[in-house]
């Protein structure tokens, strides 16, 4: 695994624009209008100053992260698709930030929290509103760019579409016996049935017996399922009145603790990741037994 720096970014794309006006003038092939409507070029069309518009929401609720983002550079990149592939795929485009010599991708969404407010998963009873109005206010997800395809169910930084506990912690079926013990442990702690990949088809959000744990972010590299790092989950259950976040260390379910003062914890974590530090962030000051 290699995290991207500027050199790696520029080798991976045919064009990387730091002057965003030139990006607007670039020729991009979109296979159809739908591909164009979901392309991050829409950020350039919507905001006069894209960088300021995307980081300004951090200023109030994530001030440490905001201070690091102020020093970032914003880019738009294009990888051209060969003519023979054009009937099947559009040019590949990506936007993001260069921060302390590391590249971070952001995912465009037509329906950010700014526009749609609460929904089933973007709900201020599940995710703290301070996180929704900073990290997810105008951006669907944040990723630290790597030389692998980003998984849909986990990211090093907050994302609005979260994966279930089992989909994040495991990548094979070799530990079924351990999983049984882990889910039994969690269900005793929460006094509820934990939603898993096995029972998801039977789960409905209106059943009081269930609790759902979804991954807000995972400090491991995208391709890593090694027992390292910190995995932070949001919970949802019938009757929930405020966000409840939990931390699992080193993908070990038996270490689960409640995350206290999650807004401050995530602010410090975000600033730590953006700082370019190779040290693992220590969540222990924000963790308590439950």
Give a description of the structure.
This protein has helices at 6-12, 20-25, 33-37, 41-46, 50-55, 58-61, 63-69, 113-116, 129-132, 165-169, 176-190, 262-274, and strands at 15-17, 73-79, 92-99, 102-107, 141-144, 193-194, 210-218, 230-237, 245-249, 257-259, 287-288. The protein is α+β, with helices and mostly antiparallel strands and 290 residues long. A six-stranded mixed beta sheet has the order 6-7-8-9-10-11. Strand 3 (92-99) and strand 4 (102-107) form a beta hairpin. Helix 7 (63-69) packs parallel to helix 12. It is globular, with a radius of gyration of 20 Å. The mean pLDDT is 91.
By DSSP (H or I, 4+ residues per run), the number of helices equals 12
**What spatial form do the alpha-carbon principal axes imply?**
globular
Q: How large is the share of residues in beta strands? A: 15-25%
Sheet with the most strands: spatial strand order: 6-7-8-9-10-11
Biggest sheet character: 6 strands, mixed
Helix and strand content put the structural class at alpha+beta
Termini separation comes to 35 Å
- The whole-angstrom Rg is 20 Å
Low-confidence stretches: none
Helix and strand pattern: HEHHHHHHEEEHHEHHEEEEEHE
Mean pLDDT: 91
Count of beta strands: 11
User: Percent of residues in helical segments?
Assistant: 25-40%
Pick out its properties.
290 residues, alpha+beta, five-stranded antiparallel β-sheet
Provide the fold topology.
Blueprint: H1 6-12, E1 15-17, H2 20-25, H3 33-37, H4 41-46, H5 50-55, H6 58-61, H7 63-69, E2 73-79, E3 92-99, E4 102-107, H8 113-116, H9 129-132, E5 141-144, H10 165-169, H11 176-190, E6 193-194, E7 210-218, E8 230-237, E9 245-249, E10 257-259, H12 262-274, E11 287-288
Parallel strand pairs: 6-7
Antiparallel strand pairs: 1-2, 2-3, 3-4, 4-5, 7-8, 8-9, 9-10, 10-11
């Amino acid at each position: 695994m290699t995290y991207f720096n500027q050199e790696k970014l520029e080798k991976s794309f045919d064009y990387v624009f730091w002057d965003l006006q030139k990006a607007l003038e670039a020729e991009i092939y979109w296979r159809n209008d739908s591909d164009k409507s979901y392309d991050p070029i829409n950020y350039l069309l919507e905001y006069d100053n894209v960088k300021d518009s995307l980081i300004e929401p951090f200023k109030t609720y994530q001030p440490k992260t905001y201070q690091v983002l102020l020093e970032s550079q914003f880019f738009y990149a294009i990888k051209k698709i060969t003519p023979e592939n054009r009937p099947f795929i559009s040019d590949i485009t990506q936007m993001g930030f260069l921060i302390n010599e590391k590249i971070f991708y952001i995912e465009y969404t037509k329906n950010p929290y700014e526009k749609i407010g609460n929904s089933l998963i973007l709900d201020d009873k599940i995710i703290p509103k301070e996180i929704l109005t900073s990290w997810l206010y105008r951006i669907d997800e944040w990723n630290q760019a790597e030389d692998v395809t980003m998984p849909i169910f986990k990211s090093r930084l907050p994302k609005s579409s979260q994966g279930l506990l089992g989909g994040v912690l495991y990548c094979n079926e070799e530990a079924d016996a351990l999983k049984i013990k882990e889910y039994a442990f969690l269900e005793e702690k929460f006094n509820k049935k934990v939603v898993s990949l096995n029972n998801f088809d039977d789960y409905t959000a209106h059943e009081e017996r269930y609790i759902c744990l979804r991954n807000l972010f995972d400090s491991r590299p995208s391709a890593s399922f090694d027992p390292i790092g910190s995995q932070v989950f949001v919970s949802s259950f019938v009757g929930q009145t405020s966000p409840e976040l939990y931390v699992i260390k080193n993908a070990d379910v038996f270490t689960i603790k409640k995350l206290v003062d999650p807004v401050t914890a995530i602010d410090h974590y975000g600033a730590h990741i953006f700082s370019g530090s190779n040290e693992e962030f220590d969540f222990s000051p924000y963790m308590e037994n439950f």
